[in-house]
Amino acid sequence: MMQVLVIGASRGLGLEFARQFRTAGARVVATARSEAGLSALRALGCEALPLDLLDAASVAGLGWRLDGERFDAVVLNAGVYGPRTQGLESPTQDDFDTVMRTNVLGPMRVLPQIEATLAAGAKLMVLSSMMGSIGQRSSTTGWLYRASKAAVNSVLRDAALTLGPRGITCVAVHPGWVQTDMGGPNASLPPERSVADLRRLLARLTPDDNGHFLNHDGSPIAW
Ligand SMILES: NC(=O)c1ccc[n+]([C@@H]2O[C@H](COP(=O)([O-])OP(=O)(O)OC[C@H]3O[C@@H](n4cnc5c(N)ncnc54)[C@H](OP(=O)(O)O)[C@@H]3O)[C@@H](O)[C@H]2O)c1
């Protein structure tokens, strides 16, 4: 049976990953930071673990809860958007801290905790965003979010350099513009479609893909 870990699965894409992996018969360990999120995951038949990326003790707790686990796939999904700016509007210190601590420090804390749960053949998918691409940038909306996703892409590259030689394939992905709380109702893709694409992509990843930044359809995105 496939063993999967989804980080940040209370709603949106994370919850949809948990749902689709369960439907496909996988054993799913998934995290949420609220009781409502944990209950939603248990209702899907997932093993639900508490995790708040903003809390170092909570991330350390995840490490010991995962002791002895071996996952075929880990999806690092949790993220926040922050202020919906258009141009060069300075973020408040609080907004900067929340977005950077969630989207960058969070993965930098979680990756060392889950490293031992990944063995040769396993896959790590980090939910980045096209908005983090510097090479394909043509808009300035949400520049704090963009900066955070560019930074987590750097984190993913370091994970790929560390884990790739052990046979673990690590990728950053763009899920499309998706109808979630973050993407809003006018987004182009329903979560079911985005996650189906991402699961297909995950299934066909090979070690040659290690360290790549990929769209949900599998096409490469410039860093
Ligand atoms: N939707 C899009 O169009 C789109 C496009 C590109 C990339 N993405 C990326 O895809 C991922 C999922 O996005 P989404 O659209 O599903 O967003 P969403 O609906 O806003 O859900 C975000 C998820 O992240 C969790 N989260 C936020 N802060 C957390 C923290 N401190 N600790 C633990 N979990 C935390 C949330 O948990 P709570 O319920 O507890 O808040 C929720 O489960 C994100 O990384 C996002 O940047 C989304």
TrEMBL record:
Record-linked Pfam families: adh_short_C2
Transmembrane segments: none
Domain of life of the native organism: Bacteria
InterPro entries in UniProt: NAD(P)-bd_dom_sf, SDR_enzymes, SDR_fam
GO molecular function, one term: oxidoreductase activity, acting on the CH-OH group of donors, NAD or NADP as acceptor
NCBIfam families membership: PRK06953.1
Protein name, per record: Short chain dehydrogenase
Organism: Caldimonas caldifontis
Organism lineage: Bacteria, Pseudomonadati, Pseudomonadota, Betaproteobacteria, Burkholderiales
